[in-house]
Amino acid sequence: MNEIEKLLEEKKVRTTAMRILIYKFMAQNKIAVALTDIENAFTKAERTTLYRTLKTFEEKGIVHQIDDGTGASKYALCEEGCNCDIEQDLHLHFHCSNCNETVCLTEHKIPQINLPEGYLAEDVNLVIITKYMARR
Ligand SMILES: [Zn+2]
Ligand SMILES: [Zn+2]
Fold first, then answer.
1. What is the pLDDT averaged over residues 86-115?
2. Which pTM value belongs to this model?
């Protein structure tokens, strides 16, 4: 059994050839990918299969979704041991509006925010939008 199969099994996701391919594709990408990126990489696959694979990965904590303000959800692989816990695991993201790339900043966790009484955070998206300034 290879590493990806082992990981899918740990996350209780049934191994399929397509799931392994999509996992590999995301692992190779240093940046977060949109569904359209996956569609472009797997043109022979059914769109619904690709979409469902992403959703399964998200539900099982294999990938996390990022709203980078571009209107298209991006997905990136979770780190080892990630439970997508708001206080422990969620991190900042960085979006470059010149190259339209979104990257995880996993070493920067979401700061603890004190919410008004009676409210519980369900999800947090913290994205730093940047533009590239050429060095002079
Ligand atoms: Zn996660
Ligand atoms: Zn991330």
1. 93
2. 0.89
